[in-house]
Amino acid sequence: MSISSILATMLRLRALSSQQPVQLGLQNDGRPDFKNYQFVLALAFAIEEINQNPDFLSNWTLGFDVYDDQYRAWSMLKNPFIWLFGKYEIPNYTCMRDSRSIAVLTGPQGLTSDKIGTLLGLYKFPQITFGPFSHVLSDYHKFPALYQMAPKDTSIATAMVSLLLHFSWNWVGLLNLQDENDSWILAELKEEMAKNRVCVAYEQLISIQSISHVLEAMAVYNEINKSSANVFIIHGDNGKLIELIVCIEQLLIKGRVCIMNSQWDFTMKRKYFMLGSLHVPLIFLHHHEDVSGFTEFVKTVNPSKYPEDIFLARIWFLSFNCSDIESDCVTWDNCVHEASLDCLPGHVLDMTMSGHSYDIYNAVYAVAQALHEMLLHQTEVQIMGNRKRTPLSPTQLLHFLKNIQFHNSVGQQVILDEKRKLEPEYDILNIWNFPEGLELEVKVGKFSPYALHGNQLSLSEDMVEWAIGTTETPHSVCSETCGPGFRKSPQEEKATCCFDCTPCPQNAIANGTDMDQCVKCADHQYANTQRNKCLMRTASFLAFGDPLGMALACMALCFSMLTAAVLGIFAKHQDTAIVKANNRTLSYILLISLIFCFLCSLLFIGRPNTVTCRLQHITFGIIFTVAVSTVLAKTVTVVLAFKATSPGRRIRWLLVSGAPNFIIPICTLIQVTLCGFWLGTSPPFVDTDTYSEHGHIIILCNKGSLTAFYSVLGYLGSLALASFTVAFLARNLPDTFNEAKFLTFSMLLFCSVWLTFLPVYHSAKGKVMVVVEVFSILASGAGLLGCIFAPKCYNVLLMSNRNSLRDFRDKKPTRRN
């Protein structure tokens, strides 16, 4: 069947092919550029496939006319008038019937569909476009009879950003047209990039009016050249951007990765794109299954089969070395024998069905399906109403086209209604140009919006051919990745992808890359030196098992036993002169309090708990108050004893009445009151210190109320100072059994220990503080024991001749002048 015979049908489906690039033009090397001729082949293939199906359209057959549109007002509108009013004469064909068409297929340029669609919409003439989806053409009020076969690119932004995230590219340039149709995609792309922390390194919006100017190309080149971004995205209609690409093809920086949207037919523009300069194009194309039988159909197409196809004849003459015969008859004897379209290079005519050709194939089936349903409807009306068949009307067909929904021969669903269309899937293509001139399209990945999140993009990274001589994936970031242990610190007045790497602060970690904030370790954990992991802290306290804790505990027990031994010596020699002369009762009280002073230091050793924390300083304060007040009572007793030696002195009754003995309970009661107030308001409690020692959590006793704590210490210090003052004043009183000197030395040592304790205690950290406090308790207690009772024990045990009143009376008293 020839093309002319196909035209002799009841239905004519006409298609337009764009002027740019020139459909039947010549390339610079003399080879023809017939890329758009595949549109005609896809149209003819679908028509023949439908006409050969006996179960489809019954006795009806389809035909088509093909017109090459020109960008001139009259030629652009002339063909629609022919379709509408049927005034076109078909060569070698005469039909007595109405020769008007019933539907028109336009594309791929949106401008053509726009101009023609305005006229066709007035007459409700069905128009189907196979070009890229246009928001302008989706206006139903302006184009009520127009349907777009291409799906809306609702997922293109997500698909491109997914590719960027796969390769960790977060510093990307944008090159787009200032076109109303593409502005929404640009907005979605920028929003998706911002959502996934991908920054725009530069953005070049190219005006359509100035696109042919060299200055525009130079501005684009300068922006690409000075930017550190190695990846940029080109989005826009290929026909509008082609002039710009021609200008900058030799200027594009080598090694840059160019990501293009599905509107680009890259193989069609190879003569404009210098692959040696662009190097790495990654192209998103609408995914479609291969239609079986199309390649075999193209192989069978030749001028002998379709002698009136002037497009095919021109391809044959220019591609297969045919000679023009000076005759009115057309002959192909001089052409290469067994010539076929599959012998042509892929960039001249691709044997596989392109995306636009696939849309044409589906458009033809959509019209046929609507026509089939319309014919069935007319048959039902005829049977029910016994009416005659009415002529086919484009307006009637438009009504049926609106609800068309079917599965094509490859199983994909076809829907004309824009609101019910499914989101498209994308194939990701890479151009292999090594060895140079190969120019092979290779599918390296796929994006499916229907897959689970995280699995939408599938990519064979090892199949991508990067820049010639390079095997590594290109790098496109504003700042290098911050590794574990560092956080991102934004740079002023720069994009969020530009940052400095700052080490995490103490006890905080960053266990991932490019973390905005460091994570603070829990109180029971600490950060390692690399600041990328939290480790468990080791509990630290002055334990009995520690060498230092064991030594202090042994010292406390030894001093306690030594004090108990002194108490035993005094009890055994209680009737001796020295024991009686130094107030035996007060000595017993002092020795017993010192025993408890040494033992109370054991409360500071071991793991702190609530009981020990409350008993530590309370017990220490009360027992040491008893000890110091006892020393004060002994000192006062000595003073009163010497002041009351003269008969008739009024002060004698104080000594006789035992008034100094009341000093102990009164002073102790005051301290007990202070401690009770401490416990009642803010008692000590178990606390932890996570800062003093790296890698350790110090378990300690918190003082609670510092005011109460220093009040207890201050009161104890006041008693000690009073005892020291009284003892110092009585140090030179003449008497063999005068212990004022020893009391003075003991209180001097006591005060020195605790005055040294305060600065050392506050400068120490961790369990060293506890060691200092325990050592001060033991040292002060040992000072009292040694200075007061060591001389007495020496006299009692070794110098018995001094431990009698008879010896004392035989001695002559010596007085100082």
TrEMBL record:
> Which Gene Ontology terms cover its molecular function?
G protein-coupled receptor activity
**What SUPFAM superfamilies does the entry give?**
Periplasmic binding protein-like I
Where in the cell does this protein reside? Cell membrane
> Which parts of the chain span the membrane according to its record?
548-573, 585-606, 618-642, 654-679, 708-730, 742-762, 768-790
For this UniProt entry, what's an example GO CC term?
Answer: plasma membrane
Coiled coil (UniProt feature): none
For membrane topology, the record states:
Multi-pass membrane protein
Chief localization class?
Answer: membrane
UniProt keyword terms in alphabetical order: Cell membrane, G-protein coupled receptor, Glycoprotein, Membrane, Receptor, Signal, Transducer, Transmembrane, Transmembrane helix
Task: Enumerate the spans annotated as G-protein coupled receptors family 3 profile domain.
Answer: 548-812
Stated family: Belongs to the G-protein coupled receptor 3 family.
Q: What is this protein called?
A: Vomeronasal type-2 receptor 116-like
Organism of provenance: Dipodomys ordii
